């Protein structure tokens, strides 16, 4: 391990990370990798062995809450400790800037690595796939296109469910795909919102958050959102297994479960999250 170097990720590494994601079939677009780097350039790292790039990890901070994702090691360099070094570097960065809780979503096959580092299982995070054009139209005059000047208000609403203010991530997603973002209000009060963005193949839905006392609004937001993409496009949705309403809604729309990951945390347990209001995560790499 004496020849392993962990260094800061550079803009010139974006294509390398995109290619490694494609090799793992993680369906990350080049632009989504760029967004992650832009969100937290000091929290992204590359591993080199004898000058060759062999892996990377990304992290992002939301105040006291941090997130780690996109940990990928080239196959020929796995099980020699490179992943552990990258994880420790990302964890050290987040803890060093005041993060108290670090979360991630683990592929079950490598969850043991995270447990050895002190991460604790929380719940399963389910992955659904569907096809656009199959939604039962449930339009509502309360659902409107999200405006740029509403992002901070949406982030404040979102924080009651996510557990932290993630306005920087929401803003970057919105700036890339404003036509796929919607908000619902009742008497000027936000009761839900949804975002969607292009993946390497198809589209990713999320974040998608809705007040649980307005279950119909979640479907209205979803229907409005997928009306904006072309018919017969693949749609990918990551759903907390704790949200029964989201699972039922997607199954009724012929979405199929195709994989899952494990939500885990390190450090202080976050009590302020309300997973029953989270109908879709923003992405395994950023929460």
Largest sheet: 13 strands, mixed
* Total beta-strand segments: 13
Beta-strand fraction estimate:
25-35%
- Name of the top-level CATH class of the largest domain: Alpha Beta
Question: What is the CATH topology descriptor of the largest domain?
Answer: Aminopeptidase
Helix content: 25-40%
Oligomeric nature of the chains: single chain
* SSE sequence, one letter per element: EHHEEEHEHEEHHEEEHEHEE
Instruction: Provide the CATH architecture of the largest domain.
Output: 3-Layer(aba) Sandwich
Structural class: alpha+beta
Distance between the termini: 31 Å
Q: What is the arithmetic mean of pLDDT?
A: 94
- Rg, rounded, reads 19 Å
Shape: globular
Low-confidence stretches: none
Q: How many helices does DSSP assign?
A: 8
Query: How many structural domains can be distinguished in the coordinates?
Result: 2
Could you describe the 3D structure shown?
The protein has 2 domains: 4-99, Gcn5-related N-acetyltransferase (GNAT) (Aminopeptidase), CATH 3.40.630; 127-280, Aminopeptidase. Strands 1, 2, 3, 4, 5, 6, 7, 8, 9, 10, 11, 12 and 13 form a 13-stranded mixed sheet that branches. It is globular, with a radius of gyration of 19 Å. It is 29% helix and 33% strand. Helix 1 packs across helix 2 and helix 5 crosses helix 6. It has helices at 14-23, 30-39, 82-96, 111-116, 151-162, 167-176, 215-226, 244-252; strands at 4-8, 45-49, 52-62, 65-73, 101-106, 120-131, 143-145, 182-186, 189-198, 203-210, 234-240, 256-267, 278-280. The mean pLDDT is 94. The longest helix is centred in the N-terminal third of the chain and has 15 residues, at 82-96. The protein is of the alpha+beta class and 287 residues long. Strand 2 and strand 3 (52-62) form a beta hairpin.
């Amino acid at each position: 391990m004496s020849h392993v170097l962990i260094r800061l990720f550079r803009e010139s590494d974006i294509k390398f990370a995109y290619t490694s994601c494609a090799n793992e079939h993680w369906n990350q677009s080049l632009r989504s990798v760029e967004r992650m780097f832009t969100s937290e350039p000091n929290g992204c790292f590359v591993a080199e062995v004898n000058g060759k790039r062999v892996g990377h990890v990304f992290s992002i901070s939301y105040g006291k809450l941090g997130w780690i994702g996109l940990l990928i090691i080239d196959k020929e360099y796995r099980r020699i400790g490179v992943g552990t070094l990258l994880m420790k570097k990302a964890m050290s960065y987040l803890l060093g800037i005041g993060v108290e809780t670090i979360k991630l979503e683990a592929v079950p096959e490598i969850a043991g690595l995270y447990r050895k580092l002190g991460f604790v299982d929380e719940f399963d995070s389910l992955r659904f796939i569907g096809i656009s054009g199959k939604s039962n139209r449930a339009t509502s005059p309360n659902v409107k296109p999200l405006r740029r000047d509403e992002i901070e208000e949406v982030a404040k609403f979102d924080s009651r469910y996510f557990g932290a203010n993630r306005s920087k991530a929401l803003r970057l997603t919105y700036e890339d795909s404003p036509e796929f973002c919607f908000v619902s209000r009742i008497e000027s009060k936000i009761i839900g919102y949804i975002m969607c963005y292009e993946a390497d193949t198809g589209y990713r839905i999320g974040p998608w958050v809705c007040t649980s006392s307005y279950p119909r609004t979640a479907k209205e937001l979803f229907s409005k959102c997928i009306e904006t993409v072309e018919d017969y496009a693949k749609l990918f949705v990551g759903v907390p297994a704790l949200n029964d309403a989201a699972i039922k809604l997607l199954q009724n729309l012929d979405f199929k479960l195709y994989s899952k990951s494990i939500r885990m945390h390190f450090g202080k347990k976050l009590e302020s999250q309300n997973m029953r209001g989270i109908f879709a995560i923003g992405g395994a790499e950023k929460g």
